[in-house]
Every structure is written in C-alpha cells, then in structure tokens.
C-alpha cells in the first residue's frame, strides 16, 4: 500500500470484480422466484446434497469436537493474522516461490496479468477458485488479450454459457443436464452432435475439450483452500482431477489466495480435511487433495507465485463481531440448508458469494452500504449456523450488520415511535386498542400501504380480538 | 410455584386466547400466575430489523419488570430466544455492562412454555383433552435457538383424544422471520407455500406451534387459501379439557385467524 494508514482498512473497490449486484436482493429474488425451472433445479440439487452430507456427518462421532477445534484454530489464526502471513511469506520464499501482496482486486488482477505476460503466454488454464471470481480476473485477463480457460466442469459450463456462477461449490447448480447439453452443443468446438444428456457423456465431452488445453497451456491460475504458515505449503481440494492437472503440468503456477486462508500448522489440516468434504459434497474423503511447497526442481511447475489478496478482508477483520465470517472454508453447507437460497438460487445475491455466508461476507467486503439488502436476505431461521462446519454464527452476524445498514427514513421514524410507545405502557395500551382499526382494512388488507401490502399479498391479517390479554386479565 | 407471565406483545395484542390459555394451564397445574403490568415488548423486532439503539430502552424495561421474579414463562420460543441470546448483547453494545449482567440473570430464569412444563414443573401429561387431528410445526427459534427438542411433542402425545400426525420437512422455516415477511415478501411467500403444502399433506384439522408469530403467518396463508385448517397455539391445546375446551377463555377465533 502506498497510502498512509489513516483509519479503517479499505473495503473492496467498486467497478471491478463481482461482489456487488445490480439491484437489491428482493427485486432480484422476485424474478428468480418466477423461474419454475430454476426453483426445481436448485431445490432438487440442494436437497440431494443435504441428504448425502447429513448421512456422512452422522458417521463421525466426534463431529461436534471437530467443529469446535476448527473454530478455535480459525479464531487463533485471525487473532495473529499479520504474523502468520509473514511466516507464510518467508516459508514460501525459502521453498523457491515468490509472494505478492495485493491490497485489492485491481492490484491482484494487475499482478497476475503481468506475471502471465512475463511468462510469454496468451492463455491460462484455471482451477476453480472463488478468489479469482471475486476479483473478476477472467475479465481482466481478457482485457489484456489473455484467454482464461476454466477447467472445473461446472465453471466450464458457466463460462461456455456466458453465465455467472450461482453456488460456491457447484457453480452451475441452477442448470440441469438438458440445459448443459444445449450449452455444449452450442459452444464447444468439435462436439459430437449426437451428444446425449447422460452425465457420463457430458463429462466425457468436457474431458475431450479440456485435454488439449491441459497439454498445451504453460501457465495455470489457481485459488487455495489452505496455506500452512509453518511450511509454506498450499492445498487445493477438488473432485474432478482437473485441478491436479493444472497444478502439476504447466511451467508457471500462479495462486491467488484470500489472506484468511492461512492456517498456522500442518497438523491443523487434519481438522479441516475431515470437516470440508463431509460438509460440502457429502464425501467421506476428498477425491483429489493437491499440496505443494514452493518449487521442486525437475518436478511440476518451475515457477510458483502466490498472490495474497486483501480486497476488504482487513476491514472485516477490524470488526470483532463480523470477523467470524473470515473463518469460512467455502464448503457451501449453509447454502444447501438455507430456505431462502433454495428458492431464489445464487444469482439473486448479486455477489460471487451467495447464500447465508455471502449475506454476511459480501456486505463486509464492500462496506454494508453497497450491499445493504443482503443482511436482510434471511429469515434468521438458524439452519446455516447448525450446518456450518466451523461454527460461524451467521444469524448473529446478519443481525449485527442490519444495525449498520442504512435504513429507509420512514421505517426509522416508525421504529423509533414504536420503541417510544412500547416504553410507555399507557401509550402502548392505547395503541393496542388502535390495532382494532385494522378491522377496517379487512383480512385482505385492502388499501394498506407498502410494506404492509407485502403481507396481505399472500396472507390474511389476523382478526383483531374483542379484548387484549391485559384487558382480559384486568376484567378477570 | 409463582410464575410471572411474559405474555409477549403479539399474544397480548392479537392472540390473547393463547396467553389466557397459558394462564389457565399453569393455574390448573397448581401454579400461581402473576402478570407484571408494566411489560410491553422484548424488543426483538427492533434488534432483528437493525435498530439496536431503539431496542435498548425496551431491553432495559424488560429487565426491570422481570428482575423481581424467580420464574418467568412465555408462550413463545422466539421471544424467549431474544431474551436469552440478544438482550445482553444489546446492553453490551451500548456499553452498559451492569444491564447486560442483569439481563443474563433474567434470561437464566426465563422459560418457553414447553421448557417450563417439562424441565421445571416436571410434567408431560398436563391432563388435557383435545379430540382433533393435529400436526406440529417446530418454530425455528424453539428448535435451533432454544433447542426445545421433542418437549412439545411429548406434551402433545400425552393429550387425550389428540391424533398427532408428523409434518413433512417440519424443521424448514415457514418464511415468517419478522420484518422479513414484508421486506422479502416474495421469498417469504415461496417458503410459506411449501410449508402449507406439507401441512395440507398431513390432512390435519389443526396446525400447532409454540409461537403465535409463525402461526399468524401460516394461518394467514391457510386462511387466504380457504384451506379449512386451523392454526392453534400449543398452550390452547394443552389448556383444553372436556369441561373447558379450547377457545373458552377469550371469545375469539383460533390463533392465526384461519376461519
């Protein structure tokens, strides 16, 4: 950073990356809710993952202890993040890698673009990564004349369909196999016109499409699930093997990692590698766990660059309540159990981080004013907190952020008046009697103004009772 | 036992039959019920809508009103959840550590109705009679904030004449969520539609729960559909006897307004 530090750390800058939607959540949700196909696709997929995950979590007798351990490790990590990052930097350097510090998306995109150019490449292959989606790296690379190729099957579907990811783990969860077949037939060069929508056939088509990329691309860009401060080891977990290809075949590997992904010791991975697969995909063990430490002469990429991304994370860390959102290991369990996400899908959240974790992370990364509707995109049912493998108290953070959100003036006046009234029992009793005025509106609430009309659009009003409880009690 | 009734503003104003049933039930079980007149609202709506500063005076009032009592009982999982999990936080946020400490003391003596009956009073058969086919919706805050578990079901299973039918996907939120229901009315309605589908699939006559708020939501939807399923607060079922059937105390329709 070149500026002098004058106060709160900076939030993620606007105009770059994908943390801000074009419209408030209720507006985007309304459109999504009208898409019956989307509702079916997301509903089916989330209920399938939920059941699978619940079954394999049930097999682990010490699941609660693992969750508590994960929370303790993450709390400790956040408490001494600067020290751990410097330790990581030194360890990566010792192992032959180079560490770059990126204050925000703009800086990270510039660093990666320069590195790719420096390697003389005009194409990169990518391992699925939330951090690079967050900063809009693909767009930045394309602007620089570099072609990014997504190699994760779902990210490839999203990229070929000129679409946006809608789930952290399953970016194309909003698509069914018939839609995927159509995307492949329309966009994949040399695809077999007789392609069926069998999952195996679709995967085989993607495999043929990608194989040439794996063998001919000299630079890969990945994210990271974990980085071990004591050893300088990076870890990527994935299910398809495309990640392993990208991490081992190219000459140059560039990893973009949010600064919160560091863990103190190698042994800490023991906890997270038990929690992550069962909470995310419902697998007992992760299929492909790739780990590398710097550069190994004669084996794998001979140039390794680690880009440490802030992009608002220091601002999140500065909030003692909100910082728990940085504990997230991107498993998506909260999305899969969320009754709001299940019905609206991910695009309604406007950010690459959808669902409950997105509703607490995106507003903090951008500043709450830039994502003011997201903390309200929850009924506070608490299913996310129960499902979270690292025990992030998402409902409490949502409530905390609502306290920071800008409020509509009329609502703020009404809330203050309500609090005043309820702090004066005589006024309160008078207001209760006034509630009978709602009789005039009828059960359908004819003529009620917004936001009350939002209730009566689908729900009758309760019939006001002839007397309140306190009147009944007094008459008793 | 001397029990202070924390009536909740919603039950006081719109669902007095649920509050009156709580009184009748507790008195029938031999407890002395007192109603501290200066209580109004716990402030949950303010906290959850993003107005913790406005909520502070309501937290202070609640703590002052209920501090003198050894046992406080409310016919609501949600309002007890707010007392237990939010009041001290609101006080600490305002820098009032003394209020936070007193709020924690009051919270430790505050029980949701089924918690009080099963854990404190030690009863599951409260001597009720309710000859209807009933399904139970575990409200989110009862289920996940208070962890009331199967206490309400144990109470319902002991009710004579009552046929209890399991609600499919019972643990899913009904979509109420306080001001969520109006701020995100479309999403709330989509959640409600699925909840109503599951309620109707049980072919129950009555849907019950421990919170008047969620019942107001489910009942409002069922009423709009003219579905013919009533929503009735758990307290009303448990208070109901052959001699004094549900709805006897205050002459009003059942909780939620489904007619």
UniProtKB/TrEMBL annotation, chain A:
Gene Ontology BP, a term: lactate metabolic process
PROSITE patterns for this protein: 4FE4S_FER_1
Record-annotated Lactate utilization protein B C-terminal domain positions: 404-476
UniProt KW Electron transport keyword: yes
Matches recorded under InterPro entries: 4Fe4S_Fe-S-bd, 4Fe4S_Fe_S_CS, FTHF_cligase-like_sf, Helical_ferredxn, LUD_dom, LutB/LldF, LutB_C, NagB/RpiA_transferase-like
Stretch list, region Disordered: 440-468
Top-level taxon of origin: Bacteria
Domain 4Fe-4S ferredoxin-type as annotated: residue spans: 325-391
Protein name as catalogued: L-lactate dehydrogenase complex protein LldF
Source organism: Micromonospora haikouensis
Automatic annotation (TrEMBL), chain B:
Stretches assigned to the Cysteine-rich domain: 3-82, 134-218
Cellular component, GO annotation: cytosol
Gene Ontology molecular function: oxidoreductase activity
Pfam families for this protein: CCG (PF02754)
PANTHER family with a match to the protein in the record: LACTATE UTILIZATION PROTEIN A (PTHR30296:SF0), UNCHARACTERIZED PROTEIN YKGE (PTHR30296)
Protein name: L-lactate dehydrogenase complex protein LldE
């Amino acid at each position: 950073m070149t500026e002098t530090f004058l106060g709160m750390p900076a939030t993620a800058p606007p105009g770059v990356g994908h943390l801000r939607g074009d419209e408030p959540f209720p507006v985007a949700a309304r459109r999504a809710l009208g898409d019956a196909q989307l509702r079916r696709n997301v509903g089916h997929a989330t209920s399938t993952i939920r059941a699978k995950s619940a079954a394999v979590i049930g097999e682990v007798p010490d699941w609660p202890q693992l969750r508590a351990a994960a929370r303790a490790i993450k709390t400790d990590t956040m408490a001494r993040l600067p020290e751990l990052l410097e330790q990581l930097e030194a360890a990566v350097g010792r192992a032959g890698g180079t560490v770059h510090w990126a204050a925000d998306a703009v800086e990270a995109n510039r660093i990666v673009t320069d590195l790719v150019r420096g390697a003389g490449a005009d194409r990169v292959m990518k391992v699925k990564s939330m951090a690079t989606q967050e900063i809009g790296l693909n767009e930045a690379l394309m602007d620089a004349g570099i072609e990014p190729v997504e190699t994760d099957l779902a990210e490839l579907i999203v990229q070929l369909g000129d679409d946006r990811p809608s789930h952290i783990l399953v970016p194309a969860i909003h698509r069914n196999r018939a839609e995927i077949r159509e995307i492949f037939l329309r966009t994949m060069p040399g695809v077999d016109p007789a392609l069926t929508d069998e999952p195996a056939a679709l995967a085989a088509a993607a495999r043929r499409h990608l194989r040439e990329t794996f063998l001919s691309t000299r630079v890969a860009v990945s994210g990271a699930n974990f980085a071990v401060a004591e050893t300088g080891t990076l870890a990527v977990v994935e299910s398809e093997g495309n990640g392993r290809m990208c991490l081992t075949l190219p000459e140059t590997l560039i990893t973009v990692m949010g600064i919160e992904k560091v863990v103190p010791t190698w042994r800490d991975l023991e906890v997270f590698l038990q929690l992550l697969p069962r909470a995310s995909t419902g697998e007992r063990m992760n299929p492909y766990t790739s780990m590398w430490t710097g550069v190994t002469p004669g084996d794998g990429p001979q140039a390794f660059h680690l880009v440490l991304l802030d992009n608002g994370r220091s601002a999140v860390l500065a909030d003692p309540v909100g910082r728990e959102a940085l504990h997230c290991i991107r498993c998506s369990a909260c999305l899969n159990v969320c009754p709001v996400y299940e019905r609206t899908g991910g695009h309604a959240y406007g950010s690459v981080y959808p669902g409950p974790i997105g509703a607490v992370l995106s507003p903090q990364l951008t500043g709450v004013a830039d994502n003011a509707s997201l903390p309200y995109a929850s009924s506070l049912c608490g299913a996310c907190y129960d499902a979270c493998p690292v025990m992030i108290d998402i409902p409490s953070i949502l409530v905390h952020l609502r306290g920071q959100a800008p409020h509509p003036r009329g609502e703020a006046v009404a809330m203050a008046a309500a609090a005043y009234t309820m702090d004066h029992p005589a006024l309160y009793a008078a207001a209760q009697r006034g509630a009978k005025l709602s009789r005039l509106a009828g059960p359908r609430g004819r003529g009620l103004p917004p936001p009350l009309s939002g209730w009566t659009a689908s729900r009758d009003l309760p019939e006001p009772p002839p007397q309140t409880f306190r009147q009944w009690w007094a008459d008793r | 036992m001397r029990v202070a009734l924390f009536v909740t503003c919603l039950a006081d104003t719109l669902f007095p039959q649920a509050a009156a049933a709580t009184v009748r039930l507790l008195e029938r079980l031999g407890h002395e019920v007192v109603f501290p007149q200066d209580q109004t609202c716990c402030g949950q709506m303010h906290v959850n809508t993003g107005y913790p500063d406005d909520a502070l005076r309501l937290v202070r009032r609640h703590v002052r009103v209920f501090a003198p009592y050894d046992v406080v009982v409310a016919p609501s999982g949600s309002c007890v959840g707010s007392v237990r999990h939010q009041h001290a936080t609101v006080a600490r946020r305002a820098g009032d550590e003394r209020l936070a400490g007193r709020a924690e003391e009051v919270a430790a003596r505050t029980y949701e109705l089924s918690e009080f009956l099963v854990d404190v009073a030690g009863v599951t058969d409260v001597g009720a009679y309710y000859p209807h086919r009933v399904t139970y919706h575990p409200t989110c805050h009862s289920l996940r904030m208070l962890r009331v578990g199967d206490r309400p079901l144990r109470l319902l299973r002991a009710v004579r004449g009552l046929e209890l039918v399991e609600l499919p996907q019972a643990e899913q939120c009904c979509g109420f969520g306080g001001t969520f229901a109006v701020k995100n009315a479309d999403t709330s309605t989509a959640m409600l539609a699925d909840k109503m589908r599951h309620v109707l699939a049980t072919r129950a006559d009555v849907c019950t729960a421990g919170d008047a708020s969620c019942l107001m939501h489910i009942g409002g939807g069922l009423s709009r559909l003219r579905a013919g399923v009533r929503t009735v607060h758990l307290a009303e079922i448990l208070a109901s006897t052959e001699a004094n059937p549900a709805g006897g105390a205050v002459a009003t329709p059942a909780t939620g307004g489904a007619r």
